[in-house]
Queue: 3 jobs
Job 1
Amino acid sequence: MDAMYDAAITPATPRALATEAVHAGREDLAALGLHAVPLDLSTTYPSYDARAEAARIDEFATTGAQPEGPPIYARLDNPTTARFETALARLEGTQSAVAFASGMAALTAVLLVRASMGLRHVVAVRPLYGCSDHLLTAGLLGTEVTWTDAAGIGDAIRPDTGLVMVETPANPTLAEVDIRAVAHACGSVPLLVDSTFATPVLQRPVEHGAQIVLHSATKYLGGHGDVLAGVVACDEEFAGKLRQVRFATGGVLHPLAGYLLLRGLSTLPVRMRAASTSAAELARRLSVDPRIARVHYPEIGGAMVAFEVYGDPHDVIAAVRLITPAVSLGSVDTLIQHPASISHRIVDEGDRRSAGVSDRLLRMSVGLEDVEDLWRDLTEALSARPGRRAAGNGVRERHSAGR
């Protein structure tokens, strides 16, 4: 999808988020004689003008801008994926968005761009998703991280700080930070907000001063547990650098995933609001349940609930029947997992606990089932005797994988 196309389909007047979710990235379909979005699976595209191709490739190498005209090669651009990027940028209120093969590929690209400018230092607030924490802490990309709380961000910034990173609501405690206050503390250093749990339905970080918004699109943006993807929403200048990294490293999003994500966006507002209503009700019931020590639920709402049990959390995981014990989140069905065993296992135990990720914490991604059915399954699991397992729900410990 080239720049000329994007300019032509940008609406003249602002539209509601629910309308954008349905129509963004699709405005040209009627003129093409189509209703459903076309899926372009080509890896390469014919061209009989090598000089023109050379000029377009030179332009991309210089600016990272999407080449005008027909696509050249799938690692550089894909029309179906570009439609998703256009739609997501409009939902987040940014100039551009760049999609990747996973959320971690997206974060890696951001870090590589900043490191290429000699800005390898990152200031970050825990908790983050376990693999994000690990990527920063392990220095796998040559980055150095200073961990702090939101109040300490300003003091932690150095001349070589290239990025401040927060996740709000945070994985898995659902802790929230004041994005506007954090953005002010960052000064000229870009603020990256991982907004995976919130989605554009609940918050748009750029409206509060963030420059970069990260999503594990595998979660709510896809919404059905059948696509792996990541996306960064940002201004066009930074997007150009991200495209260059994506082209060089190969972390491209498959066009089928782009197709599924665009379809997922069309129902995102409806899914988020329905799941959030059930999640809020479950959080309310859990908060007065004598078997529960503490409930975590964000002030902005959402479909995620975390709670700490007095009993053994592994017994709860083993006993659910309707709810699926699995990593990840944001699907139409309800999932539950034990962060200390799975999503945050790779984080040092002391760092986990200091960030509020206790060994008794369970994290639940509420889906679209009837809330009474979910509560019945959950309350029976909370009362289950040790060793009681639902058929096929064997539990095994593993390192961090999905969120």
Note: Residues 1-5, 390-399 have pLDDT under 50 and may be disordered.
Job 2
Amino acid sequence: MKFIRSLTAGVCGAGLLAAAIAQQNPVKFELPQVGSGAQAPTQQAAPATTTPGQTAPAAPAVTFTEAQMMEVYGYMLGVRMNLADLEFTPAQIDALARGMTMAATGKQPTYDAQQIGPQLQDLLQKKQQTFMTKLRNANLADTAAFFTKLKDNKNVKELGGTGLRYEILTEGKGVLAKAGQVAKIHYTGAFVNGQVFDTSLRAPEGQKPEPVEILVKEGTMIPGMLEALVKMPVGSKWRLYIPPHLAYGDDGVPQAGIPPAATLIFEIELFEVNDAPPQPEEAKK
């Protein structure tokens, strides 16, 4: 089982623009669920006038107009497409609303899709790049602050001189993994806010999560993990604090939910290491 999956960034086509925004925009790495957002204010119930033993009457249900419901529906669509993150001007918002009205009433745009498509794509990409730059700079600043504060934790040490930090949760006494061997591990990857984005500890209900096997080799995992894995004795469990340049870099992997310039925290437990099985002759060529 591969640990770090192969992910590539693609450019969306000119069609299905709403879907393209939702898929490509790297800002909201957790899309809100339907029904999330601001809640309608509840009615203030009158003081209870029941006597002991009586049940208080239920508060009357709040009734909304169709216009109010459609307004909230439009809001949810906009949130799901991350429209706020593209920082449209008031004039662009008005134009966007006209296009939504045309789509809702079954009308067709008055412009040729083949002609306007590339220019529209370019506009959206520029807006994405502008926000990506802001997000990247903000994350780099947060990373600097995070690692500065991390120095106060006496249990956290620096591994080498690359900026990688680690904390020993369980001290192992076994052998060290070597490049080219296969390591059997459990792992959990999270952001600095604690949100888990990947883990080997998930399993179908009633089943025990099985450790995964990974080839100890450059390119099979992020650099910070590889740097730590070859210095962990078997039986160890470490928490790694991995800066962006040892993780997914300044660009991140938006399609996988990894923001640009993201600092990652990994917990890795190493169970055993074994020599890799011999490769077929054709694979060696």
Note: The longest strand covers residues 264-275.
Job 3
Amino acid sequence: MRVLTLAGSLRAGSLNARLLREAARLAPPDLSFEAWERLDELPHFSPERDIDPPPEPVADLRRRIQTAEALLFCTPEYIHAMPAVLKNLLEWVVSSGVCVGKPVAAWSASPSPEGGAKAQASLAHTLEVMSARVVPEASLCLTLAASSLDADGRLADPAQVARVEAALRALAAAGTP
């Protein structure tokens, strides 16, 4: 199963992007990962800008989502919500219908004790409104301080490794007919 990963942060060295790379390393062999890392290239969404053909980064994003068999989003939490740049990405995608019925895992990684639960809930709700098939067993919130990922970007806590592996297995199972 081809999984497209999308991190909701523009920050260099983003905890969420690093976690997605670790997920790719921990994934079962029946999952292959591709990261879409052009979030900072998306123009601000406005309905009058959503024309045919769309701006090139938007066309690329929609094409990659369309060809992926599943999606894995990982968002930070800013002011108890997903960041505006991730919401902007979703606004560019919604009218295309490329997420309809697609299995999706909604993750949040945050240094907060709740692991970004409010942002994750907001992301999952928005994806459901877009008719994506959010897989609850594949979705999770992780409390990660920078020290939770070692120098090589690997999860240091075996319990967190187990949660990530279980979520990835659930995503793989959701894509199996």
Note: The mean pLDDT is 93.
